[in-house]
């Protein structure tokens, strides 16, 4: 496409030149893009600076605003930079100077600021008329030797002054302070590193330019951020060093302060944040997540940060697992942040992606050139001065004749000619003699000239040695680099640890057995077993839960912290819940509504069973209230879903009462509320899939119902009634009946009913809980062994109108012996 547009004010007869708009757009855009890349956004690989940074530092250096002088108003510095070298907005220049003065932005700040220069909360710096600045000594190391023709100078924007194209830069600033910038079609983002480590890497590269990245990684193990933090793993660092790009993960530093005496919850105290994280925004985001219940367990957040550092305190609710909450802070907030590095820099006027050896190589090449040019400049100056001193010494050796020649000349020009022709001097030496003061004729002054000449000759020899070979120049780089590391280097701030990206929440959980209880109103809680001290049977127990008047405890069981809880509802659906996800509560607390933990829909949880793993060769055996049994492979439930799924199909007016884990090789016992039991082999129950209704397990008498299902294992069958009576029975007392029969009498009941039957070992302990939340903990061996049909002994004395509703069996850990406890002297009632 072309356009023919006559110039304004030109007669129509003027011939126009056709222009391709496509080509014009392409050319103009490329020119614009390259201008942004080279002149604004991407740093030079040699000094690690963008033009605005370089011009700001040079302007401060040029105006004498150095570290040994008083600070100057920032507005004055900004005006000098803008008026002399950088004809852009004053805001961009001041923002650049501010950032170079922020210790949380630069690993080694280049500008020393006095006044308000912002904060990690994102607060803006004060206006330039209120703040003052000067160069940091570190920045002066970048500018040293500018006056020795070490770098090229070019005219400024109006050609009234000259400015350097690059700084001599004794320091590999690009690696030390890093950079970031967005250009047109490309961007750069480089992390900062520790100065001592970078200098050591430079020296290692000088020794062996082909040094492998693995060797450099031993010297520079990773970035070192000004805000500290913890670098998670080195795989990302290896990629960055080897290819020039990669991603690393940085965590803030936090510690858990455990509560003393259990009077309050634990605390999480954060003292360091990942690089470039805005603290105020981070705290606000966490507060919103707590409000929206996306982060649970945090009761209060306080920012106690001051001039000495960051301190953010998270108060945790009592009973929560502090390690889990801290892990969630890492997972869901900026307390763990990724840093995607892309090492793009300008090399010979072209943007290039550079790995670590290339970055070191370009810096070394620059320093070789700077030291060569500096040495040549110094050598030339020394030789010129020695030449002058030789002339002065010649004059002093023939001072009378020199004076006579000068006095015999009528003009200075004639005197110069007389000195040149009569004493073998050149014009420079003759001029120096003519300008020599009379005090130089003193003996001490003459000796000073001799000493100065000797010093300069030694310096000349040193400079000639340096220039004799590139290896000698490299030795000079090694010396200067080591001096820089010693002068400005400090200890590493960012800790490097093993990669914990695959660390799950469960890895932070202590795998211990706890007591879980659930009420008819679906309040659930967990408690440590140590909450309840062991008592002799027949005691009153202690309060285990405070419930509402219309809410009673429906079940209690023991489970491991890492167990899954399969929560079955009244409509036959199943939901998954990890035990550690249940908030730990005090002994008398009512717990937390289970609807806050599960996505229930117009349904209530009726049965909960713990399970550690889902195996193909294991099964779940279900028993319903009306005597149905269903056997389903465990792996049918191995894919947890947040919305739950159908488990079994219940018949009308039926509900699930018990579930056990089997291997299809055992016998089982079904127990009823009226004290009957049926023993049969589980292989008579066919294996079905989820959603099946099963087969008849036991035929019931009248309005009797099933209350429990247990395997024939361990030592005895323990049965407990709602009136607090219990007994142990030998399994051999139950004759083997076929499935779908009515069974035999197991326990004598009158006004009470059996609420639980389970196989127990003599070393087990039981936790018995009543509807009002009272719990007693006692040993199984304190309960008498009796025959079928006996009523048993009193396990727990109940208050009026209270009744037992749940029993949890706990097996002591291996190596822990049960406490010997004789049966209490309580007669059967």
From TrEMBL:
Protein name in the entry: DNA gyrase subunit A
EC number: 5.6.2.2
NCBIfam families reported for this sequence: gyrA, PRK05560.1, PRK05561.1
Localisation per UniProt entry: Cytoplasm
Keywords: ATP-binding, Cytoplasm, DNA-binding, Isomerase, Nucleotide-binding, Topoisomerase
Quaternary context: Heterotetramer, composed of two GyrA and two GyrB chains. In the heterotetramer, GyrA contains the active site tyrosine that forms a transient covalent intermediate with DNA, while GyrB binds cofactors and catalyzes ATP hydrolysis. Heterotetramer composed of ParC and ParE.
CDD domains found in the cross-reference section: TOP4c
Function: A type II topoisomerase that negatively supercoils closed circular double-stranded (ds) DNA in an ATP-dependent manner to modulate DNA topology and maintain chromosomes in an underwound state. Negative supercoiling favors strand separation, and DNA replication, transcription, recombination and repair, all of which involve strand separation. Also able to catalyze the interconversion of other topological isomers of dsDNA rings, including catenanes and knotted rings. Type II topoisomerases break and join 2 DNA strands simultaneously in an ATP-dependent manner.
MF-aspect GO terms: ATP binding; DNA binding; DNA topoisomerase type II (double strand cut, ATP-hydrolyzing) activity
SUPFAM superfamilies assigned to the protein according to its UniProt record, in alphabetical order: GyrA/ParC C-terminal domain-like (SSF101904), Type II DNA topoisomerase (SSF56719)
Any single GO CC term annotated in Swiss-Prot or TrEMBL for this entry: chromosome
Gene coding for it: gyrA
Coiled coil: none
Motif range (GyrA-box): 535-541
Domain of life (superkingdom): Archaea
Annotated ranges, domain Topo IIA-type catalytic: 42-508
Main location: cytoplasm
Biological process annotations from GO: DNA topological change; DNA-templated DNA replication
Note: Few gyrases are as efficient as E.coli at forming negative supercoils. Not all organisms have 2 type II topoisomerases; in organisms with a single type II topoisomerase this enzyme also has to decatenate newly replicated chromosomes.
């Amino acid at each position: 496409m072309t356009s023919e547009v006559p110039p304004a004010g030109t007669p129509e007869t003027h011939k126009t030149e056709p222009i391709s708009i496509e080509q014009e757009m392409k050319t103009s855009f490329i020119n614009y893009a390259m201008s942004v890349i080279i002149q604004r956004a991407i740093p030079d690989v040699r000094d690690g600076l963008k033009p605005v940074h370089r011009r700001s530092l040079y302007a401060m250096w040029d105006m004498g605003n150095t570290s040994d002088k008083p600070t100057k108003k920032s507005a004055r510095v900004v005006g000098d930079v803008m008026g002399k070298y950088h004809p852009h907005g004053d805001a961009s220049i001041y923002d650049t100077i501010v950032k170079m003065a922020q210790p949380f932005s630069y690993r080694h700040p280049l500008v020393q600021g006095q006044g308000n220069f912002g904060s990690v909360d994102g607060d803006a710096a004060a206006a330039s008329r209120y703040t003052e600045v000067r160069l940091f000594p570190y920045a002066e190391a970048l500018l040293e030797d500018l006056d020795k023709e070490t770098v090229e100078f070019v005219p400024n924007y109006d050609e009234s002054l000259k400015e350097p194209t690059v700084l001599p830069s004794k320091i590999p600033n690009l690696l030390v302070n890093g950079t970031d910038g967005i250009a047109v079609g490309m961007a750069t983002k480089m992390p900062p590193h520790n100065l001592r480590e970078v200098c050591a890497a430079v020296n290692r590269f000088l020794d062996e330019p082909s040094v492998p990245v693995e060797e450099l990684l031993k010297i520079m193990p990773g970035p070192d951020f000004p805000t500290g933090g913890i670098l998670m793993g080195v795989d990302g660092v290896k990629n960055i060093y080897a290819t020039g790009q990669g991603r690393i993960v940085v965590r803030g530093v936090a510690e858990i302060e455990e509560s003393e005496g259990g009077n309050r919850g634990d605390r999480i105290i954060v003292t360091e944040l990942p690089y470039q994280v805005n603290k105020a925004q981070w705290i606000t985001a966490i507060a919103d997540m707590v409000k929206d219940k996306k982060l649970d367990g945090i009761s209060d957040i306080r920012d106690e940060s001051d001039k000495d550092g960051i301190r953010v305190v998270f108060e945790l609710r009592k009973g929560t697992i502090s390690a889990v909450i801290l892990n969630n802070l890492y997972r869901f907030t900026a307390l763990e942040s990724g840093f995607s590095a892309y090492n793009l820099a300008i090399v010979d006027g072209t943007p290039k992606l550079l790995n670590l050896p290339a970055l070191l190589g370009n810096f070394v090449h620059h320093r070789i050139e700077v030291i060569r040019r500096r040495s040549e400049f110094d050598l030339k100056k020394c030789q010129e001065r020695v030449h002058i001193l030789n002339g002065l010494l010649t004059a002093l050796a023939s001072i009378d004749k020199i004076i006579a020649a000068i006095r015999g000349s009528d003009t200075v020009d004639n005197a110069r000619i007389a000195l040149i022709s009569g004493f073998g001097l050149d014009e420079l030496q003759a001029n120096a003699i003519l300008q020599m003061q009379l005090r130089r004729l003193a003996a001490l002054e003459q000796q000073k000239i001799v000493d100065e000449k000797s010093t300069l000759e030694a310096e000349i020899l040193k400079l000639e040695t340096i220039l004799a070979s590139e290896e000698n120049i490299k030795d000079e780089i090694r010396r200067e680099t080591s001096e820089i590391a010693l002068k400005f280097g400090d200890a590493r701030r960012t800790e490097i640890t093993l990669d914990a990206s695959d660390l799950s929440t469960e890895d932070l959980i202590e795998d211990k057995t706890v007591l879980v209880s659930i009420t008819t109103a679906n309040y659930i809680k967990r408690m440590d077993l140590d909450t309840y001290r062991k008592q002799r049977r027949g005691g009153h127990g202690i309060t285990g839960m405070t419930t509402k008047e219309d809410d009673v405890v429906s079940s209690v069981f023991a489970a491991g912290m890492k167990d899954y809880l399969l929560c079955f509802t009244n409509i036959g659906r199943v939901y998954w819940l990890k035990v550690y996800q249940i908030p730990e509560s005090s002994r008398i607390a009512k717990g937390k509504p289970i609807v806050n933990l599960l996505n229930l829909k117009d349904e209530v949880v009726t049965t909960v069973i713990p399970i550690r793993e889902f195996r193909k060769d294991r099964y779940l055996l279900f028993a319903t209230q009306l005597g149905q049994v269903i056997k389903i492979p465990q792996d049918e439930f191995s894919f947890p879903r947040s919305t739950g799924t159908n488990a079994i199909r219940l018949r009308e007016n039926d509900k699930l009462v018990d579930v056990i884990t089997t291997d299809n090789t055992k016998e089982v016992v079904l127990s009823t509320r009226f004290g009957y039991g049926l023993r049969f082999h589980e292989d008579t129950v066919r294996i079905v899939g989820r959603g099946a209704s099963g087969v008849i397990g036991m035929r019931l008498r009248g309005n009797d119902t099933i209350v429990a299902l247990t395997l024939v294992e361990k030592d005895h069958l323990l049965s407990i009634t709602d009136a607090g009576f219990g007994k142990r029975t030998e399994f051999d007392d139950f004759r083997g009946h076929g499935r779908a029969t009515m069974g035999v009498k197991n326990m004598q009941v009158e006004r009470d009913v059996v609420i639980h039957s389970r196989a127990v070992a003599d070393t087990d302990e039981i936790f018995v809980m009543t509807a009002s939340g009272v719990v007693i903990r006692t040993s199984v061996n304190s309960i008498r062994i009796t025959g079928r049909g006996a009523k048993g002994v009193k396990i727990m004395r109940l208050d009026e109108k209270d009744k037992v509703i749940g029993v949890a069996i706990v097996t002591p850990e291996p190596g822990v012996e049960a406490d010997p406890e004789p049966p209490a002297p309580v007669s059967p009632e």
